[in-house]
Design goal:
Helices cover 36% and strands 30% of the residues. The protein is of the alpha+beta class and 390 residues long. The protein has a single domain, classed as FAD/NAD(P)-binding domain, CATH 3.50.50. Strands 5, 6, 12, 13, 14, 15, 16, 17 and 20 form a 9-stranded mixed sheet that branches. The longest helix has 30 residues. The radius of gyration is 21 Å and the shape is globular. The two termini are 35 Å apart. The structure holds flavin-adenine dinucleotide. Flavin-adenine dinucleotide binds next to helix 1, strand 2, strand 3, strand 12 and helix 8.
Length: 390
């Protein structure tokens, strides 16, 4: 079988790319194993939401399980001698009704898949094992031994991407002595559409609003502590969450599915090579601080599609080079900021704590810096892909 594009991986990034391509009449096939529900929710900022609208998946059904993010609060809960002031960002400061929405992956991924199927995308239920490119095409081989041919491949097959490895694209890796617990819970007080990131000594603890009196939680901590939290009864975990939130959300109950994720950083040495664009976590992995991961991945998908649409041969060197340059300019500085923020919490060096506190104080008090932090938190100011412009 031959199509213009093959996408390996049906996570949110691969599926979003498939929808965008099919919407523009570009033939594409997605190679992916069976969908496994994921308990995570993701805070998607305005440009990503714009893309969901553009694709046509932002409907009442999806909206009913998501919640708007109207305020973002950062609280220094390190207990250090020098602490940063509380920072409160409000979407009204940017004339926005909300910064974005908290979207459950277990609902987003099936919605994207249904849309891709309705748009005529071909789905191949398998796993890609290898890829081989020549001057005119790329051939992807599946686990079943079948070959699929295209002009361009989008490797969106996750952090351990088999196709990235098969094409000999290396990665830079770094690890953190941390894990993250993802879950959700109910609370007796209203969250008032506020997402709160508590900066603690072993990493951030972030609550993100869900519909009604419910929130999702990403709790980063030392691996042994996360393991202990996983083993606790619901009642015990509820007490721990109530303590960490200092009672600000009232009484905690009804803990949702829990899943732990080891924290690591990773970046592909190139984001494009041999008729392949590397997309989403196959290209970059970063800790869940400041809701950057999937927002970056969706920008990868939309940027790849912008370059593929209208190109006679989207696999040529100049297009691959442009994709690599555009995506690195967005990804690399964001990974650096997230790493710095995380390291400054973990480091026992007082100078780090002082620098973090000074930086956050400046953001809290200097208007242009506040604005810069808010706009850059949403998306880069330049080169926003077409589907995200609104
Ligand atoms: C705890 C936590 C909280 C997070 N919160 C946020 C947030 O609030 N906001 C945000 O923007 N980001 C967040 N992120 C990051 C975000 O969840 C990820 O960036 C995103 O899920 C990555 O999507 P993806 O499509 O690139 O990869 P994946 O979701 O990993 O999808 C890859 C797909 O490829 C498939 N696959 C694997 N191997 C193969 C193969 N060989 N062949 C074919 N298919 C294959 C897999 O089955 C999977 O479906 C969070 C991450 C964590 C860990």
């Amino acid at each position: 079988m031959s199509t213009t594009a093959i996408i390996s991986g049906a996570g949110p990034a691969g599926l979003a790319a498939a929808c965008l391509l099919a919407q523009d009449g570009i033939s594409c096939a997605v190679i992916a194993p069976e969908f496994k529900p994921d308990p995570r929710t993701t805070a998607l900022m305005q440009p990503s939401m714009q893309m969901l609208k553009f694709i046509g998946v932002w409907n009442d059904e999806l909206k009913a399980v998501c919640a708007p993010l109207k305020q973002l609060h950062l609280i220094d809960d390190t207990g250090n001698l020098v602490t940063a002031p509380k920072i409160q960002f409000s979407s009204t400061e940017m004339n926005l009704e909300e910064f974005g929405w908290n979207v459950p992956l277990a609902r987003l991924v099936p919605a994207l898949r249904a849309r891709a199927e309705a748009l005529g995308v071909t789905f191949i239920a398998s796993i890609s094992v290898s890829a081989h490119a020549d001057e005119h095409k790329i051939i992807v081989q599946t686990e079943a031994g079948e070959n699929y041919e295209a002009k361009i491949l989008l490797a969106a097959d996750g952090a351990d991407s088999a196709l990235r490895k098969s094409l000999g694209i290396g990665t830079e890796n770094w690890s953190f002595d941390q894990s993250a617990l993802a879950t959700s819970f109910s609370h007796s007080a209203s969250h008032q559409s506020v997402s709160t990131e508590y900066h603690k000594l072993a990493g951030p603890f972030t609550t993100v609003p869900l519909p009604g009196n419910r929130s999702s939680l990403v709790w980063m901590d030392r691996p042994a502590r996360i393991e202990a939290l996983l083993q606790m009864s619901d009642a015990e975990l509820a007490i721990e969450i109530q303590l960490e939130t200092k009672g600000s959300l009232g009484r905690i109950s009804d803990i949702g599915t829990r899943k732990a994720f080891p924290m690591r950083g990773q970046r592909a040495t190139t984001f494009a090579s041999q008729r392949c664009m590397v997309v989403g976590e196959a290209a970059h992995v970063l800790p869940p601080i400041g809701a950057q991961g999937l927002n970056l991945s969706l920008r990868d998908a939309a940027q790849a599609v912008d370059l593929i649409i209208g190109a006679e041969d989207p696999g040529i060197e100049s297009i691959l080079k442009e994709y690599n340059a555009l995506r690195r300019a967005d990804v690399v500085p964001r990974q650096q900021i997230v790493n710095l923020m995380n390291q400054s919490l973990l480091s026992s060096f007082p100078a780090f704590a002082l620098a973090r506190s000074a930086g956050l104080s400046a953001i809290a008090n200097i208007a242009p810096l506040r604005n810069l932090a808010m706009t850059q938190g949403l998306a880069p100011s330049a080169n926003l892909p077409f589907a995200m412009r609104g």
